[in-house]
Amino acid sequence: MNRGLLLRFENLVQLHGACWQLRALSSRKVCGAQWKPVQLSAHPLGSLLLHPQLWPKHRLISAALSQCRHLATKEETKKKKKKVPQMRGEVEIRQKMTVEELAQAMGKDIDHIYEALLYTDINLDSVEPDSILREDHIKMIIQKSGMKYKSAKLKEEKERKNTDAVKRQVGNCSFLPPADPAVLTPRPPVVTILGHVDHGKTTLLDSLRKTQVASMEAGGITQHIGAFIVHMPSGEKITFLDTPGHAAFSAMRARGTNVTDIVILVVAAEDGVMQQTIESIQHAKNAGVPLILAINKCDKPEADPERVKKELLAHDVVCEEFGGDVQAVNISALKGENLMVLAEATVALAEMLELKADATGLVEGTVIESRKDKGKGPLTTAIIQRGTLRKGCVLVAGKTWAKVRFLFDENGKAMDEASPGIPVEIMGWKDSPSAGDEILEVESEQRAQEVVAWRTYVEQQEKMKEDLEVIEAKQKEHRLEYEKQQQKLAHLTWRQRKAVLYKANRHLMFSRPKERTEMDENTLSLIVKGDVDGSVEAILNILDSYDCEDECKLDIVYFGMGDISENDISLAESFNGVILGFSVKASESIKKLADKKGIKIKLHNVIYKLIEDLKDELNSRMPPTVVETTIGEASVLDTFSVTVGKNKIPVAGCRVHKGLLDRKMKFKLIRNRDVIWKGCLSSLKHHKDDVQVIKTGMDCGLSLDKNLEFSIGDEIICYEEKEVQQTTSWDPGF
């Protein structure tokens, strides 16, 4: 018996020793070594030699590996439960640290940071691990945690080298060399025709060019700038820019005067000075451009050219016959009268100005208009101001560049080159530049990419600065609101303050931000497409004047150039929006797709019709308003009550003095000019008979659907409620 117990105990000791041997071997990475006996001197039975032969080898290894697995699992569990090491001493801080970065620097978890933020004016609902903290908040959190802070050494950001492209000469700048007079050659004058809408600007240009531009314009109104060359019988060339007179295109008129040498101000003889006439005069003055007055429609019986000249005196436009320096020419653009006199006056003024340009060196110019063509891609109409533009030139404008592939004149014919003062359409742009952008030629495509990269970088820096200012303003506003709230709760204990704040913010606990799946019904989302950049700009300028957000919100989801595409349909479907197209087209397949998805496409060629359609769409998005229409009025002459069952019901004896009382309609009780009840009648009687209608002059007794006491002199009004569609109060200015 004792021997059996002794053998069992010996086996256990052997297993224990084998496990320790295997563990020692594995730690030394000597898996192939021979087993060695281990002396257990501490064992009470004395020295025992352990040999692997006393225990089956496979069972020893299995048991040992099991023990190792147990130990390894235990170590991993300890690592998982290992807490974030708490930092003692100073915490290194820097500007624009996030919540997560601060927690790592402090050796704390994120929950600790959130807990410390409870003592600040920050709204915790808006704080995420990647939210940026203000420096004063960072310092406060560290101090609340019983730590100290030190500012990290700022890494000096290497200043980026300015790689922008500039003109060879800007005005009279002393640091840039003036153009060599030997290379200056005469150039055609650039003339802009300005004036009020429908005063005959395009008809005048049409007569000069002997083409039918006016008949091609939608509604006879110029929709965007057209640049043309007019050849005079004497051999001179004049470059004309025809700008829109419509109120919406103010920016395009301003652009026209900025690249022009002479302004021809067209005023209708029967209308006189109008709103856009005054604006055109101001544009010319701002640009420092001389004027020539063209009084149009002088063939009409009601024409009064002298009145026009006198009206212009109030705007500092003094004609030569009144002692000024402005030439005035009476014309009829439709009949072609005195057009050569006007052209000669333009040539004479151009000779006085001595217009010359350098046709050598790198090209400089201005984008007059840009558009997208399906076959040709982005196209720009430009005026060359210096150098000679040829195929293969590398140009930069705004944040895009081009390697010129083709040049076209105003009639779409290919050109080999374009010299200063010549309008040209350029093909080869990577993207559409904005109208008004400066065109500069650079040495190579690599240089063009450097310029675009620099301009993009500058724009990003400016945007970041603006965003930071907005963020700081919002934080300041929130901090002031927080301080006011704290002052209101200053007299309460901390427990009472917690209770008040919980009640105030309880509704926010269950209203976390969710992904927006549908737009508010009272919001109109727009996708704006135009034929050219200037048209889109004009529409956006009009939409910027929208000031009725309380009636219906206006959200511009996307704007661009080109015909309506499938992407526009998908975007409109996502935002439940409407597509506005100006002088663009939608193919039959696009229209069918839009009908299938329930998307509205509104296409127009005249700007004011597009805005009228937009206003109608805004009206349809606005909720209807309820209008009360009075049907009859009656006065309470006496009061009494009747018993119905166990209840006494007040009854008013009335006389109708206006209209009629109809039991089907709604009623209201007015006492001392205050409405004290609205609802329906429970009974209406004439003598003892129940009636439906009581007419003017008849007496009646009535009771309300509410147990309300009457007073002699009360007014009973019978009215009808009708839902009426609201109309927007937005006035775009035309």
Structural summary, described in words:
Keywords: Coiled coil, GTP-binding, Initiation factor, Mitochondrion, Nucleotide-binding, Protein biosynthesis, Transit peptide. It is found in: Mitochondrion. This is Translation initiation factor IF-2, mitochondrial. With 734 residues, the chain is of the alpha+beta class. The protein has 5 domains: 90-151, no CATH class; 184-356, P-loop containing nucleotide triphosphate hydrolases (Rossmann fold), CATH 3.40.50.300; 364-452, Translation factors (Elongation Factor Tu (Ef-tu), domain 3); 523-621, Rossmann fold; 625-724, Translation factors (Elongation Factor Tu (Ef-tu), domain 3), CATH 2.40.30. The protein has 17 helices and 33 strands.
Q: What is the typical, i.e. mean, pLDDT?
A: 78
Shape: flat
What CATH architecture label of the largest domain applies? 3-Layer(aba) Sandwich
Counted up, domains total 5
For the biggest β-sheet, the strand order reads 28-27-33-24-25-32-29-30
Distance between the termini: 117 Å
Approximate helicity band? 25-40%
CATH class of the largest domain: Alpha Beta
**Number of E-type strands:** 33
Largest sheet report: 8 strands, antiparallel
GO molecular function, one term: translation initiation factor activity
Family: Belongs to the TRAFAC class translation factor GTPase superfamily. Classic translation factor GTPase family. IF-2 subfamily.
Coiled coil: 461-488
Subcellular location: Mitochondrion
